[in-house]
């Protein structure tokens, strides 16, 4: 089995209830959100896995048909409805890697400078299981790096647990403070995420096109 050093898991398996339309295909400058995330992920990782929703699989397959380094999956049946951790588990089960960058499909400001910084962090913190950023005192677990922990995640989910924060608290987590990630990128709204149509239009009004 190929063992990658880094793989990216793009979480796109949510219901997008508040947005009312799939966040995966929202416009982002001259691309779609998913195209942006895939293109930055491919600069730091050997493979990208999109953990998608059943309604989007066909469209994603068409969009990335030419790209051998992308897999499009759905959450493992057993853990459907378990939220983001089900996506992590599915990706870890599918491809063996040392580290997984995890990206939500609704953070339009995540950029390559940030991902490169996160990648360096995996090299400088080899003893950590999870590396996640903090902004204004809040953790952003869907913009972090996770060491392969397929077995631990299986056990956690199989007991009926779904909560991401409890899982994070149960392992060795390195928190990247603002001073640190602020040196990698000057994007201060890095972890902004779009949940509603008004988030999208506010973001579009404020981006530097
Ligand atoms: N693979 C997978 N990803 C999920 C799941 N639930 C949420 N996500 C992803 O986690 C991120 C944050 O999701 P939320 O904004 O909390 O939820 P959402 O389902 O996208 O949107 P709402 O239905 O409005 O809550 C997004 O990237 C989602 O696609 C899930 O069950 N499986």
Report on this structure.
The protein has eight helices and ten strands. The chain has 209 residues and is α/β, with parallel strands linked by helices. It has one domain: Alpha-Beta Complex (Spore Coat Polysaccharide Biosynthesis Protein SpsA, Chain A), CATH 3.90.550. Strands 1, 4, 5, 6, 7, 8, 9 and 10 form an eight-stranded mixed sheet that branches. Strands 2-3 form a two-stranded antiparallel ribbon. Helix 3 packs across helix 5. The termini are far apart. The protein binds guanosine-5'-triphosphate. Guanosine-5'-triphosphate binds next to strand 1 and helix 3. The site of guanosine-5'-triphosphate has 20 residues, from strand 1 and helix 3.
Quick summary:
With 209 residues, the chain is α/β, with parallel strands linked by helices.
- The name of the CATH superfamily reads Spore Coat Polysaccharide Biosynthesis Protein SpsA, Chain A
Determine the mean pLDDT: 95
Radius of gyration: 16 Å
Number of domains: 1
Cofactor: Mg(2+)
Keywords: Cytoplasm, GTP-binding, Magnesium, Metal-binding, Molybdenum cofactor biosynthesis, Nucleotide-binding, Nucleotidyltransferase, Transferase
Domain MobA-like NTP transferase: 9-150
Binding site for Mg(2+): 106
């Amino acid at each position: 089995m190929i063992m990658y050093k880094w793989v990216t898991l793009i979480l796109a398996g949510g219901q997008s209830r508040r947005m009312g339309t799939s966040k995966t295909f929202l416009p982002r400058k001259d691309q779609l959100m998913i195209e942006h995330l895939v293109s930055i992920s491919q600069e730091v990782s050997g493979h990208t896995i999109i953990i998608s929703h059943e309604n989007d699989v066909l469209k994603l397959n068409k969009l990335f048909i030419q790209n051998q380094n992308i897999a499009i999956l759905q959450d493992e049946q057993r853990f459907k409805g378990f939220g983001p951790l089900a996506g992590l588990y599915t990706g870890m089960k599918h491809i063996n890697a040392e580290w997984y960058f995890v990206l939500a499909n609704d953070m339009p400001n995540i950029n390559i400078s940030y991902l490169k910084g996160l990648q360096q962090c995996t090299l400088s913190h080899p003893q950590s299981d999870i590396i996640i950023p903090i902004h204004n005192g809040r953790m952003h677990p869907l913009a972090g790096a996770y060491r392969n922990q397929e077995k631990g995640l299986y056990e956690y989910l199989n007991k009926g647990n779904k909560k991401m924060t409890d899982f994070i608290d149960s392992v060795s987590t390195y928190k990247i403070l603002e001073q640190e990630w602020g040196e990698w990128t000057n994007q201060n709204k890095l972890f902004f995420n779009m949940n509603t149509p008004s988030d999208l239009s506010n973001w579009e009004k404020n981006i530097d096109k």
